[in-house]
TrEMBL record:
<keyword id="KW-1133">Transmembrane helix</keyword>
<comment type="similarity">
    <text>Belongs to the TDE1 family.</text>
</comment>
<protein>
    <recommendedName>
        <fullName>Serine incorporator</fullName>
    </recommendedName>
</protein>
<feature type="transmembrane region" description="Helical">
    <location>
        <begin position="212"/>
        <end position="235"/>
    </location>
</feature>
<keyword id="KW-0472">Membrane</keyword>
<feature type="compositionally biased region" description="Basic and acidic residues">
    <location>
        <begin position="328"/>
        <end position="339"/>
    </location>
</feature>
<dbReference type="InterPro" id="IPR005016">
    <property type="entry name" value="TDE1/TMS"/>
</dbReference>
<dbReference type="GO" id="GO:0016020">
    <property type="term" value="C:membrane"/>
</dbReference>
<feature type="transmembrane region" description="Helical">
    <location>
        <begin position="281"/>
        <end position="300"/>
    </location>
</feature>
<feature type="region of interest" description="Disordered">
    <location>
        <begin position="305"/>
        <end position="340"/>
    </location>
</feature>
<feature type="transmembrane region" description="Helical">
    <location>
        <begin position="344"/>
        <end position="364"/>
    </location>
</feature>
<keyword id="KW-0812">Transmembrane</keyword>
<feature type="transmembrane region" description="Helical">
    <location>
        <begin position="116"/>
        <end position="136"/>
    </location>
</feature>
<feature type="transmembrane region" description="Helical">
    <location>
        <begin position="32"/>
        <end position="49"/>
    </location>
</feature>
<dbReference type="Pfam" id="PF03348">
    <property type="entry name" value="Serinc"/>
</dbReference>
<feature type="transmembrane region" description="Helical">
    <location>
        <begin position="79"/>
        <end position="101"/>
    </location>
</feature>
<feature type="transmembrane region" description="Helical">
    <location>
        <begin position="181"/>
        <end position="205"/>
    </location>
</feature>
Length: 415
């Protein structure tokens, strides 16, 4: 029980620090950034507990309820999943509470933007309580997290497609030669990067003297997809553009690299171990920071998109709203009888953070049981390899679909 009290005190202390540094300064406009800070704090806490909490969890009887104590890797994974579950419940509860909000006169609009000391206290209590639930609850959550993480990856792909199309359209609409040259430069750079990167992948993941047919298949398929994107986008019957095709191509090459680099170090076709030393603590911290930035950006970008996330009463997305737009400034000068519609779906915003909580847990546990993974490595294993390569293929399929869907269904509006 002493160890459990120490763990609870650490979580409570973290929450109090967040209260004093952030809650008092949160305004309506910065509310989304505050949610990001809370989410980032949960990721940092997960990482720290993953590294240092195993000796404490050994002494908690309802966690270490085994006849033979499992290895430290199991306790590390268990700590990450418990923090993730607390974070997931916090955002899932808010997602349910915010269902149906259409204008800023709704009382729940103030709940979404204010009350930060109470929110942080609830968040901390939920995380502490998750260390009191039995292991069967964590096992069920681990299974559900795999599906939730897949949904989050799908949302990431949709947001990338939306971003590239908006980027291309914004430059084309300027109708100036310098922007057309800029589009050409970006396209050329992206395709050169794709082909050069693929060549590096051949050298690293197809070492001579080994039969690495699976790695070759992954790399060749990535190159085929890059050519397919260009061919379909430039087809005269397709209303496409070569610049988004080039950006999606380089992204697919990156996904291919992350997939191959996640292969176990003892796999003979993983040539990275010949070019870099064993993963160190500093590399793990750098990788974690990168994960924090990418997941938080994806969640905020998804929650602020008005293309498919806005409630029916909000304006259409043609206004090109910024990430933290002026709609967040408050109810404005309009009369109370003319309530301002909310600028984005609060429910979907919190749902994205809930799914991102599941995704971060899978990143830190390697998408599988910690007993089969090396404790010093993060995000490594065959499950991770296939998740990421499938993400690449889903990205390609969705992009091709956005190009050919208007031809297959000419009577439907895809704008």
């Amino acid at each position: 029980m002493w160890c459990a009290s120490c763990l609870a005190s650490a979580c409570a202390g973290c929450a109090c620090n967040l209260c004093t540094s952030a809650a008092s300064a949160v305004t309506r406009r910065s509310a989304r950034l505050a949610y990001c800070g809370l989410f980032a704090a949960s990721l940092i806490l997960s990482f720290l507990l993953r590294q240092f909490a195993a000796p404490l969890l050994h002494h908690i009887p309802w966690i270490n309820a085994f006849e033979h104590t499992p290895p430290d890797e199991w306790f590390q994974m268990n700590a990450v999943l418990r923090v993730s579950l607390g974070n997931f419940l916090f955002f899932a509860i808010f997602a349910i509470m915010m269902i149906g909000i259409k204008d800023q006169n709704d009382r729940r609009d103030a709940w979404h933007h204010g009350g930060w000391i109470a929110k942080i206290a609830v968040w901390a209590v939920l995380i502490v309580l998750m260390f009191c639930v039995p292991n069967i609850v964590i096992t069920i959550y681990e299974v559900l997290s795999k599906f939730g993480s897949g949904l989050f990856l799908l949302v990431q792909v949709v947001m990338l497609l939306d971003f590239t199309n908006n980027w291309n359209d914004s430059w084309v609409e300027k109708d100036e030669q310098k922007w057309e040259i800029a589009l050409l430069v970006v396209t050329v750079v992206c395709y050169l990067s794709t082909f050069a990167f693929s060549g590096v992948l051949f050298m690293w993941f197809n070492p001579s003297g080994h039969d690495c047919g699976l790695n070759v298949f992954f790399i060749v398929m990535t190159l085929i997809l890059a050519f397919a994107f260009a061919i379909v986008a430039l087809h005269p019957q397709v209303n496409g553009s070569i610049m988004p095709a080039s950006v999606i191509s380089v992204y697919c090459a990156y996904l291919c690299y992350t997939s191959l680099s996640s292969e176990p170090d003892d796999y003979e076709c993983n040539g990275l171990h010949m070019h870099s030393k064993q993963v160190s603590m500093s590399a793990l911290i750098l990788g974690m920071l990168t994960t924090v930035l990418s997941v938080v950006y994806s969640a905020v970008r998804a929650g602020s998109s008005t293309t498919f996330l806005s409630p029916p009463s909000s304006p259409r997305s043609g206004a090109k709203n910024p990430l933290l737009g002026d709609e967040e400034t408050g109810k404005g000068d309009s009369k109370e009888s003319e309530p301002r519609p909310v600028s984005y779906s609060y429910t979907f915003f919190h749902l994205i953070f809930a799914l991102a909580s599941m995704y971060s847990a899978m990143l830190l546990t390697g998408w599988t049981s910690a007993m089969s993974e090396k404790s010093e490595l993060m995000d490594v294993g065959w499950t991770t390899v296939w998740v990421r390569i499938c993400t690449e293929w889903v990205t390609a399929a969705l992009y091709i679909w956005t190009l050919i869907a208007p031809l297959l269904f000419p009577d439907r509006d895809f704008s």
